[in-house]
Specification:
Layout (H helix, E strand, L loop, with lengths): L3 H17 L3 H5 L5 E6 L6 H16 L3 E6 L20 H12 L5 E3 L19 H12 L14 E2 L5 E2 L5 E2 L5 E5 L2 E5 L4 H5 L7 H25 L3 E5 L33 H14 L3 E5 L6 E3 L13 E5 L14 E6 L7 E6 L6
Helix pairs in contact: 7-8
The protein binds 2-acetamido-2-deoxy-beta-D-glucopyranose (4 copies).
Length: 358
């Protein structure tokens, strides 16, 4: 055990080393605390598009965020023919979202949701080809190896051609991204609702199979990268609520929490994915936050169990609030996370009720 004096001397030595470091990476590797913003499932109405989301962006911009992440669903599930803002999957919808992201001062991350691709084949969304809309998203949002937003952050991109495009040809799942800030690893995966593209209008098993395998590979690569870098924690960001247990049939697929088998009647787009995730989380032995949207209900809990039913104590699910019509049409809020890489839990969460939106 270090005495007070040796600790002081050690601290002095560290300060001297830092002060003299020619290598800037030593400074950026310092594990100082910072804050980030999370949001998703917005806007779902004209009022949210023209008032709620602009208020939210203004609120986020008033904080010194290192970055923000939007976890998908830029519109309601089905288009509204009386809407004056884009509510179908037309190019104007994507232009509107890009405008939101690029009006954020801090680097802005994004992972796609079912409402802007898998469900674009619904008649009320304009009968689009879901694969074509995903190709368009890749072209429009994910052409560069950096974030969106006014300031940009470099990202590692899943660049192997493991997904498939509109014509069934191999293409990169370029929306899958990874980045690191002060000793914490973040990554996104394209995991949408509608059973991960296995249910709802025109399910697409071929597309699912390619992307699911790619996601699992990206997950394993990213855990390995985090372990190699000695990261203090991982945060994963995607859209779907895959269902972790059998407790909440109004919001997610029901699943046996021990063997992970889905126990309701929908096709299961998440079994293999969750099985792989569980192995990675157990082996990592440090905090893992899993951020998703989908069911529009803010919560932070620990729903993931091992095969014997013991809680994975280092795993936290964070569900962003999203549009909640039951609480007024302009209920547009976000989650601020204080990230302290040297604290035991690393992530601390606060629901930010946006001024003017309630
Ligand atoms: C459709 O949009 C109009 C105009 O914004 C709105 O008044 C109406 O409530 C919306 N309908 C639904 C079902 O959300
Ligand atoms: C969408 O497809 C359906 C079924 O094929 C068809 O009946 C409908 O007219 C189409 N709607 C539009 C807007 O193209
Ligand atoms: C998983 O658990 C459920 C009970 O919740 C059971 O019905 C099912 O047979 C189990 N599946 C496997 C593969 O063990
Ligand atoms: C949970 O994470 C902490 C580090 O924050 C580690 O010391 C502990 O061993 C982990 N627990 C498990 C069960 O992996």
């Amino acid at each position: 055990m270090a005495t007070g004096i040796t600790r002081l001397l050690l601290l002095a030595a560290v300060c001297v080393t830092v002060a003299h470091a020619a290598d800037r990476s030593l400074l950026t590797n310092l594990r100082t605390p910072y804050q980030i913003g999370l949001w998703g499932d917005l806007p779902y109405s004209d009022l949210q598009a023209t008032v709620g989301v602009p208020n939210l962006i203004k609120d986020m911009n008033s904080y010194a965020l290192r970055f923000s992440a939007f976890n998908g669903d830029w519109k309601a599930g089905s288009g509204n023919s009386s809407s004056t803002t884009p509510s179908k999957c037309s190019n104007e919808l994507y232009a509107q979202c890009l405008g939101y992201l690029n009006s954020l001062k801090a680097p802005a991350m994004y992972t796609p949701g079912d409402n802007e691709w898998t469900d674009c084949d619904r008649e009320k969304n304009g009968n689009y080809s879901s694969r074509e809309r995903l190709d368009y998203i890749r072209k429009t949002f994910f052409g560069a190896d950096k974030s969106l937003g006014q300031r940009k952050l470099s990202q590692v991109v899943q660049s192997e051609a493991l997904c498939i495009d509109e014509n069934g040809a191999p293409t990169a799942c370029s929306e899958n991204r990874r980045w690191e800030v002060n000793g914490v690893t973040y990554f996104t995966m394209n995991v949408p609702g509608s059973c991960n593209n296995l249910c709802d209008t025109s399910p697409d098993e071929l597309e699912f199979k390619a992307r699911n395998a790619a996601n699992i590979k990206w997950m394993k690569d990213s855990f390995a990268a985090a372990a190699k870098a000695g990261s203090a924690a991982i945060m994963i960001i995607s859209q779907a609520d895959p269902g972790w247990d059998d407790s909440d049939k109004t919001r997610a697929p029901l699943r046996d929490a021990k063997n992970l088998t889905q126990i309701d009647s929908d096709p299961d787009g998440f079994f293999e994915y969750l099985t792989a995730l569980r192995e990675q989380v157990i082996a990592f032995k440090k905090p893992v936050a899993y951020v998703h949207g989908d069911s529009h209900y803010f919560r932070v809990d620990k729903p993931f169990l091992d095969s014997k039913g013991a809680r994975l104590v280092n795993f936290t699910r964070v569900q962003t609030p999203g549009s909640n019509a039951n609480n007024g049409n302009n209920d547009v809020n976000w989650v601020k996370v204080i990230v302290n890489p040297t604290s035991r839990e690393v992530f601390n969460y606060a629901l930010m009720i946006v001024p003017g939106n309630n």
